[in-house]
C-alpha cells in the first residue's frame, strides 16, 4: 500500500507492505489503530483571506444565528481586512490601467481608419 501526505510534489510517499494473511482477518478497530500509528493529520492553514472577508460580509447575515459563532463566519482580524482592501485597490488600479491601454490602442486605430484620409483631398470641414 502506498501512502502519501497529499498530492503536492514536496510531500513524500511511504510504501507500507501489508501481507494478505495478516490483514485478511484483521478487525476494523485493528486497522484504525494501525492507521493512527502510521498516518499523521495535516494541520489546516486556514481560510484564504478573501474567503474570510466574503464569508463574514456576505454570508453571515443570511446564516441562522446559531451558526454565527462558527469559525467560518467570525469577524476577520484588522490585518486581514487591510490586506484584502489593499489588494483589491491594487487590482482595480491594474484593471483600470489595462483598460486604458486597451482602448488607447483602439482609439488610435479608429482615428487612423476614419480620420486619416479626411485631410488628403483638402475637403475638411466642408459639408
List the helices and strands and how they pair.
Layout: E1 2-4, E2 13-15, H1 20-24, H2 28-38, H3 49-59, H4 78-114
Antiparallel strand pairs: 1-2
Helix pairs in contact: 3-4
Order of helices and strands: EEHHHH
Structural class: mainly alpha
Strand content: under 5%
Record field, number of beta strands: 2
Average of pLDDT = 80
Helix content: 40-55%
The coarse silhouette is: elongated
- Main sheet properties: 2 strands, antiparallel
What does this structure look like?
With 127 residues, the chain is mainly alpha-helical. The chain is built from 4 helices and 2 strands; from the N terminus they run E-E-H-H-H-H. The chain has helices at residues 20-24, 28-38, 49-59, 78-114; strands spanning 2-4, 13-15. It has a two-stranded antiparallel sheet. Strand 1 (2-4) and strand 2 (13-15) form a beta hairpin. It is elongated and about 85 Å long.
In short:
With 127 residues, this protein is mainly alpha-helical. 50% of the residues lie in helices and 5% in strands. Helix 3 crosses helix 4.
